[in-house]
Amino acid sequence: MIFSSIPFLYYFLPVTMILYYLAPKKARNAVLLLVSLVFYGWGEPRYLLVMLGSTALGYLFGLAIGAAKKPAARRALLTASILSCLGVLVYFKYADFFLNNLNALFGTNWKLLGLALPVGVSFYTFQILSYTVDVYRGNAEVQKNPIDLACYVTMFPQLIAGPIVRYTDVARQLKTRQYSRADMEQGMTRFLIGLGKKILLANLLGEVCAAWRATQDGSVLFSWLYAVSYTLHIYFDFSGYSDMAIGLGKLLGFSFPENFNYPYIAASVTDFWRRWHMSLSSWFRDYVYIPLGGNRKGRGKQLRNILIVWLLTGFWHGAAWNFLFWGLYFAVLLILEKLALLKTLEKHRFFGHLYLLLAVIFGFVLFDASSLRGAWVCLRGMFGLGGLPAVSDEGLYLLRSNALLLLVSVVGATPLPKMLAQKLNDYSTNAAAALRALGLCMLLLVCTAFLVDGSYNPFLYFRF
Amino acid sequence: MPPMKKRLFWALPILYIALTLACWLHTPNAESLSERRKLAQMPKLTWSGIQSGSFASNFESCTQDQFPLRETFRRGKALFSTKLLGRRDNNRIYESGEGFLAKLEYPMNEASVDYAASRFRTVYDRYLAGSNRVYVSLIPDKTAYLDGIPKLDHTAFAERLRKQTPFANFIDLSDTLTLNSFYKTDTHWRQETLGKTAEALAAAMGKHLSMEYETKLGTADFLGVYAGQSALPVAGEPLYYLWNDAFNGLEIQDRENNRTIGVYDLSALNGRDPYEMYLSGSLSLITVKNTNASSTDKLIIFRDSFGSSIAPYFFESYAEVTLVDIRYLPVERLGKFLDFADSDVLFLYSTLVLNNSETLK
Predict the structure, then answer these.
(1) Is residue B317 part of a domain?
(2) Is B13 on the interface with A (CB under 8 A)?
(3) What's residue A461's pLDDT?
(4) Rounded to a whole number, what is the distance in Å from the CA of B334 to chain A's nearest CA?
(5) Tell me: the pLDDT tens digits for A232-273?
(6) Among candidates B181, B175, B209, B183, which has minimal Cα distance to B194?
(7) Residue A162 pLDDT level (bands cut at 50, 70, 90)
(8) H helices of chain B, where?
(9) Where are the domains of chain A?
(10) Is residue A217 less than 8 Å (CB to CB) from chain B?
(11) What's the average model confidence in pLDDT over A140-169?
C-alpha cells in the first residue's frame, strides 16, 4: 500500500486512526503493529514472513546480547546478528548481482535466483541493525516486549521508505506518548504537504522523465530537461514521502527525525549530504564510518573510510554498477572537497552553489540510468555529443508544457515558501491560520482529484 | 490556542471526515458515460486474491472508479493541470487553440506497423490472386494537421506501410483532409467532409462517385471520446450523416449477429458512442448489396471504425461491399465467410490503430 492512494487515504488511514485512538494506551503498540502488518502485506503478503523473521532475529539477538556478560560473547552475538540481518538483505537484494558478475568474470553459468525484492527491506534491516548495535554499545536498553520491538520495526509511517528511525529515537515514545492538538495540526499539515509534493510535483516531473526515457526524438535540450526534472522529481518524491511519514508519526504520537533540509541550497557536496537523506548518512556515519575510525586514524585512513562508506551508500541504493559508481562519484567529490575545495566553495557561495547543482544533476543522471552505458549516453547528449540536435519537437513541447511546474518546483525546493509563511504569521496570526486552513483543504481536494483521475503511482525509493 | 485558530483547526478534519464517509457510503456506479467504459466494482475477498495481490490492485481500481463526485474531481484535476499549471495536455489529450482535442500518440511503433502489414500480407497470400485489385491506404491522425506538438511522422509512417505492402497499390489520403475533416472532441473524421477523400479512393480503384447527398443532423451535441478522456469542459458539436434515398434499396447484413441493419443506426445517437450510428459501429463482418449499383463489381474493405463512415460513399459503385474488421475476426478464418474472387480489396486503417496493431488477429 502506498500513502498517495485512495485506499490508504480514505480507507486504511481513517480505520487506523479510529482503532488506534479507541484502544487503551497500553494496547496502542499492538494496534499499530497489527495495522502495520496489514499495510505491508496489502499488496505482497508473502514477504511479511521475511520482515517478521528479521524482526524476530533482532529481538532474540537483542535479548542475548543484553544477557551476555563476557565481551567476547557479546561481540560474537553482535556479529551473528549483523550477519543474519545483512544476510537477508544480501540474499534478496544482491545475490543476483554477484551471480551475474561471477558469470561474466569467470564464464560460469550460475543460475540467477530471480527473487523479487521485499519492499522496504533495506530500511527495516538498517533499523534492526541500529537496535542490536545500540544494545551492544549500551546506548539502548534491551526491549523485552516483542510487540514493542516489532511495532518499532514495522511501524507503517516509516516502514517502506524511511526515514531510518533509530531505536533510540523512539524507545521512550514506545513506552509513553504525548498527544496534543498542536501535534495533530503539525501532523496533518506535514502529511498534506508531503502528499502535495508527491502528487502535484514529483509525479508530474516523473512524466517528463518517462517521456525522455521513451523518446526517439532526443536533443541536448531534452537531455537537460530530463536531468533537471529528475533531480527535482527524486527530491520531491523522497522528501514528500518523508514528510508524510513524519506527519503520520506525529498523528500517532511519535516524533521521527528529519530526513531532508533543503539539500539544493547547499554550496558543496559535503553540505549537500548533511541535508539529503540525513537518516541514512547519519546511520552510515555512526555505524560504519566511526567504527572504522572515522577521521581519528590519520588522513589516509579517513579517505579510505570515506571511500568505503560511499561505496556502501551507493550499493545500498541498488544492486547495479551504476549505483556503485554513483557512490564512488560522491566519494571522490567529498575527498576533493576535504583536501582542497571546501574553503573556496564556502568563500564563494554562488559558484559553490552552481558547482553543487551540476554535481548533483550529473550524479542523478548516473543514479537513474539503467546501466553505466545509459548514463554515458545521457551525459554525452547533455553536451551535444553523439550527434543529437540542440532542440527537438518533443523536448520543446515538454519544456513549454512544464515550464511553470519546473519554476514552482525550483522555488519549492528552497526555504522561500516557508519563510513567506512565517512572515505572514508574524504579520497576522489569524490571516495566516485562515490561509493555512484554506490552503490545506484545497490541497487535500486537489490531491484527491489527481488520485481519482490517476493510476498507480509508486514511490521511487520503494525498490530499496 | 486562540479561538479563531481553534475553529480553523477543524476545517481540514471535517473535510477529510466528510470525504471519507462519502467514500464509504457511496452507491457504486456501473459505468462512466464520459469515459465510455465500465467502472471497476468491489472485488471479492478471497485468500488467493490476497496472496496474489490481485485483490489489492482491484480494490485500488474500484476505489478510484467509485469515488464520489468522480467526474467533478476529474474535471478539477484537468483544470488545475491545464489552467493553473499551464500544462498543454491532460492524460495525453492535447487541446489546440481552435478547440481540437487530440491524443498525443508518438513515436511510430515500427514493430506494430510491420505486424499490421504482415497481417495484410497473410490475407493476400492466403486468399488473393491475380484477379484481385489490391489497395492499401492510411488515414492520418488529426495530429498530422496540428502544429507545435510532438506527433507521428505521417510521411514516414505511410512510407513504411507502403514498403511493407508491395502487393498493394498505396493510396495517399493526406492531401484530401484538413483539421476540419475531424471532430473536435473525437478521434474520428466527419462523414460529411469526406467527399474528396472518398473520390480519391474511388478513383484509385477505377470508380467515379456521382451521388448527391442530403446532409442530416444526427445530434447537435456530440461529445467524442477525447472529451471524456481529457475531462476538460468542452462544448459538444453537431454530428451529421449523409443521406440518399437510394440507401433504402440496400440490403445490409450484419453477419456477426445474423441480422439486417440500416446504413445508420439512429438509436446509437443516444448511446455511449454516437459515432456507432454509422453502420452500427465496429462489427466484424457486414455485407452491403446494392442491386442498383453502377457496376457489378465487389469491394472488400478491411477496416477499423473510420471505415464505417466512409463506406457508404462506395455503395453506389459496387454491387456488393463487404466490411471486415480483423480486430474481431481472425485472418485465418476469413475463407469460411468471404469469397474474394474477382474483388477489389482495400486495406483502410488509421495510424492510431496501426500504431497499436496488436489487436489485429
Answers:
(1) yes
(2) yes
(3) 56
(4) 37
(5) 999 999 999 999 999 999 999 999 999 999 999 999 999 999
(6) B181
(7) confident
(8) 3-9, 11-25, 47-52, 54-65, 70-79, 110-127, 154-164, 195-204, 225-230, 306-310, 351-354
(9) 6-177, 183-453
(10) yes
(11) 93
pLDDT, tens digit, for every residue of A420-457? 999 998 888 888 889 999 999 999 999 999 999 985 45
Residue B86 covered by a domain: no
Could you list the active site residues of A? 317
> Is A81 at the interface with chain B, CB within 8 A?
no
Q: Answer yes or no: do B64 and A6 touch at CB < 8 A.
A: yes
Domain check: are B61 and B106 in the same one?
A: no
B92: nearest CA partner in chain A: A207
Tell me the CA end-to-end span of chain A in Å, nearest whole number: 15
Query: Domain span at residue B253?
Result: 102-359
Shared-domain flag, residues B167 and B290: yes
Distance to chain A for B19, nearest Cα, Å? 8
Considering the entire predicted model, what is its pTM?
0.91
Q: Rounded mean pLDDT of B19-23?
A: 96
Q: Is residue B51 a contact partner of residue A48, using CB atoms and an 8 Å limit? A: no
Are B234 and B284 in a shared domain? Answer: yes
**Complex ipTM:** 0.90
Please check the confidence at residue A419 and state whether its pLDDT lies above 70: yes
Q: What is the pLDDT of residues B71-108, one digit of tens each?
A: 999 999 999 999 999 999 999 999 999 999 999 988 89
Residue A459 has what pLDDT?
53
Q: Looking at the domain assignment, is residue B222 inside a domain?
A: yes
Q: How confident is the model at residue B128 (pLDDT cuts 50, 70, 90)?
A: very high
The count of CB pairs under 8 A between chains A and B is: 129
Q: Please give the grid coordinates belonging to residue B123.
A: 490475407
Q: What's the residue count for chain B?
A: 361
Give the three cell numbers for residue B313.
460513399
Q: Which residues of A touch B23 (CB under 8 A)?
A: 6, 10-11
Are residues B296 and B227 both part of a single domain?
Answer: yes
Distance from CA of B313 to the nearest CA of A (A): 37
Cβ atoms of residues B118 and B315 within 8 Å: no
Task: Provide the chain A residues 32-51 that lie in CB contact (below 8 A) with chain B.
Answer: 42-46
In whole angstroms, what is the distance from residue B271 CA to residue A344 CA? 71
Question: Is there a contact between A394 and A215 (Cβ–Cβ < 8 Å)?
Answer: yes
* Short-list B311, B302, B279, CA closest to B361: B302
Q: Which grid coordinates are listed for B115?
A: 505486424
Residues B335-339, mean pLDDT to the nearest whole number: 90
Asked if B7 and B134 sit in the same domain, the reply is no
Pairing relationship of beta strands B251-254 and B101-103 according to DSSP bridges: unpaired
Best mutation target, A448, A451, A456, to test chain B (most B CBs within 10 A): A448
Give the residue from B51, B68, B85 where a domain finishes: B68
DSSP assigned state of B343: E
Chain A residues with beta carbon closer than 8 angstroms to that of B58: none
Say yes or no: B107 and B230 in one domain: yes
Residues B221 and B307 in one domain: yes
Question: Could you tell me if residue B95 is inside a domain?
Answer: no
Chain A contact present for B148, CB below 8 A? yes
Residues B221 and B265 in one domain: yes
Model confidence pLDDT, tens digit, residues B76-85: 999 999 999 9
Question: Does any CB of chain A come closer than 8 Å to the CB of residue B111?
Answer: no
Domain boundary among B25, B52, B68: B68
Phi, psi for B253 (deg, rounded to 5): -115, 125
**Buried-state track A184-209, b at ≥16 Cβ within 10 A, e below 16:** bbbbbbbbbbbbbbbbbbbbbbbbbb
Confidence of residue B132 (pLDDT cuts 50, 70, 90): confident
> Which of the four pLDDT bands, split at 50, 70 and 90, describes residue B2?
low
The count of other CB atoms within 10 Å of the CB of residue A334 is 22
Split into its structural domains, chain B has a count of 2
The position carrying cell 520543446 is A396
CA distance A345 to A362: 18
